[in-house]
Here is the input.
Amino acid sequence: MKTKLFFVIVAAGVLMGCGGGAPDGNTVKAITLKGSDTMVILGQRWAEVYMSKNPGSTIQVTGGGSGTGIAALINGGTDICEASRPMKDKEKEQALARHGRDVKEIPVAMDGIAIYVHQSSHIQSITQDQLKGIYTGKITNWRDLGGTDGKIVAYSRENNSGTYVFFKEHVLANDDFARDIQTLPGTAAVVNAVSKDPASIGYGGIAYTSGIKAVPVSRDAASQPIAPSLDSVQSGTYPLSRNLFFYTIGEPAGMAKAFIDWVLSPEGQKICESVGYYPLKK
Here is the structure.
């Protein structure tokens, strides 16, 4: 799946401003979403469908990573931040100091970070300890995991990615990535690399599994491997389940509130599955 990192649709009229309410006359109200590359395809779809149902509305969606979106929110460069990780306390404090209002955290979808291997790989499952060993450089050959003899080529996201932060915290227990781990700027790039290299492994959002194999993950050697699915992610039995978030400065208002309310509605949540993610648990 190819990710577009910049997306703009103008439903009608001329772009006049940000964060307004419903369109008034010929004036087009607009909001911006910026952040997670994992979420950009979901944000694009939400924006496209919402604008088709609300002529005169304009929603601009850009990626760049969760860290980029959070920085933009703090600096006043976006109405809504898309983030695949929770904001850190320090980031919330910076937003409060800058704007005089607390950030509002809004879970909008669910995801299971998938572990990608080449479709020809003999690896049928993997433990979190094995993943940590690979990405910290302690496991370097597939034969150590029951695969074919050969060096493991591991791909990762860059450090401005919320997926990178989540993986480092929940899989590496905040240990450092090995120096020879190859970093790529987006999830689509990781999938593309893994799909072309039988010796490779990568990780990223569950919606980006075209052309690769997502292997089940177990918490440890004594646990049953679990594949990412609607049930396993919503129940939390899949070890790498997570929420995907919107963040706003203060309570959302005007068009931003209308859009977020629609995203959280049954119609908006249904779009999660059409893109490849999972709706929030009812």
Observations:
- The chain has nine helices and 14 strands.
- The mean pLDDT is 90.
- The domain at 114-227 is CATH 3.40.190.10 (D-Maltodextrin-Binding Protein; domain 2).
